[in-house]
């Protein structure tokens, strides 16, 4: 199991994750994509990354707006796994024009 990050480590991680914020025990980002198909393509790529890492975000899909929640439920909060996944999600969103 990954170790929980303390508040200082989470704040430092957020400094390097534009668009992300902390919401309790999760890192959260809302991304608006150019179209619904573009949003679904991002979800598909994030799903592949999550499967490879065996670490999955919660994703809310509303037309072309995606909300990602990264938290390590088994650890009860935010771990390095979440920071790494958030970074990978940001790369996918940016490549899709979000």
How many β-strand runs? 4
**Overall average pLDDT:** 97
Shape: globular
Q: What oligomeric state do these chains adopt?
A: single chain
Helix content: 40-55%
Structural class: alpha+beta
Radius of gyration: 13 Å
Strand order, main sheet: write it out: 1-2-4-3
The biggest sheet amounts to:
4 strands, antiparallel
Q: State which percent range the strand residues make up.
A: 15-25%
Number of helices: 3
Q: Uncertain regions: pLDDT < 50 for 5+ in a row? A: none
Secondary-structure element string: HEEHEEH
For the terminal residues, how far apart are their CA atoms?
32 Å
Tell me what you see in this structure.
This protein is an alpha+beta fold and 98 residues long. The chain has helices at residues 7-15, 36-53, 80-95; strands at residues 20-23, 26-32, 58-62, 65-70. It has a four-stranded antiparallel sheet. Helix 2 (36-53) runs antiparallel to helix 3. It is globular and about 35 Å long.
